[in-house]
Amino acid sequence: MARNNIILFGEVLIAILLALELVYVPTVLSSDFLGRVLVYVSVASGLFFLRKENQFGLKRQYFKISSLFLIGFIIVHFQIYLDYILGGYPDFGFDVMINDRLVPKASLISALAVVSYYIGYLFASYFKAGTNHIQVDRISTVIHSNKGVLLLMVVFLLLFLFSANWDYFNGNYGSVSVGILADYAQESLLLSMIGYVLLFVRNERLIGRMYGNFIFYIKSLGSTFLVICGIYLFLVLISGDRGPILQFGISLFGGYVLLAKRKMKFTVVLLFIFAGATFISLLGFVREIGNGTDFWGRVDKAYTLRETSSIQSSISPSTLELAGSVRTMHAAVDYAESRGHTNGLFQVFQVISIIPGAGTVVKYFTGMENTDFKSSAFLTRHILGANPDRGLGTTVVADIFLDFGTMGAVVIFFLFAWFIRYLEVNVYSAQLFRLSTLALFFIFLSQALYIGRSTILVLFNEVVFLYVLLKVGLFVNSFLGYKKVKVSDK
Length: 490
What we know:
The structure is a single chain. The chain is mostly helical. Helices cover about 65% and strands about 0% of the residues. The protein has a two-stranded antiparallel ribbon with strand order 1-2. The chain is globular, with a radius of gyration of 23 Å.
């Protein structure tokens, strides 16, 4: 553990240096200062990935929540700064900085947040050190059929098909509403698909079955499941939406990783992310092209535009759209400097919203819209005015900083790292799983790349929804007469 002790000391030292920089932060944006911040982040990140892993299930395993989260986080909060240093930023044609005077402060807060995450993860690593398998007393060893969840998928797909506005599927995501009922059906269908994979992985791990071939793993999921997924993902693709494809794709591959006979190398994970980022970037261009041609015509035009676009000036054109979310971090600092912090408003509402229907109750008693309690809508209005023509999202640091300031971001990222470490250890290093633990793991894994431009607490809404759907699926199993099978009976 000597190496980890030295690395932890180095991370704490970097955090102290960043805090001192924050005390004397300049108010003039310069490449030299941003370069110094990036050096801090680079050294801290390098130290973190040099740590010695003490859990057997996590050794040399790079496809996990922490890895994907950090890649997404660094892209969102620091890529634009690197583009600025390299001289590509003026070519982008849009204002990401919002208020140049406050960009140095925003960059330091983001840097402190990620270093705090590193420190929290390292601290958590000291617990259960040297243990290769986590004790899992009182966990059910019953194999549950996934037929009930499969039936839910069929119901939600049909509901989605019959209630959707079909004009939505002509590349009109973001400009045409799919319909309220169809929107709920779509969310339920996506989570049911993830729940099906979750139950499959749990059952296969219980009986000790491992997979060496990805194609065989896909086939083992069943033809009915694959057909339903194929229909839904095709509709999502032609609508121009990207989130469900990315979320389900990561969940599906994550299930394979948990059942694979070998661990995912770092190069494989990078290729996986690069391919996904390129695909998402292309769909983003498709959405920007107006009506007047069919979806596939838009794809062809989008590909041509992407190749000639000014985004090619970026160090990573495929992830530039994701990186552009940093503008909301700048807006958060701008708002806090002039009007103060929101004192937990957004976090409290997200906690309340975990309870189904609670958001509607809050709206009824306060007379305020749900969007008034979301940092994404709040920051969009701060940037674009009272009647914005589009949403700009948020970042995970901006969301916390608005409520609790810099110290709040440091504390919460420390605790968040501890939580992620807990999930990874209890899933990768265990043979048996609680459904609740798997629900947490699959949601946070599937959204790991996106957390950087989202919020932490909002994911618990999906966890609760997924867990409820799993319980409903198991009830359907009992109703249809599918018997539970104990592992010892297999």
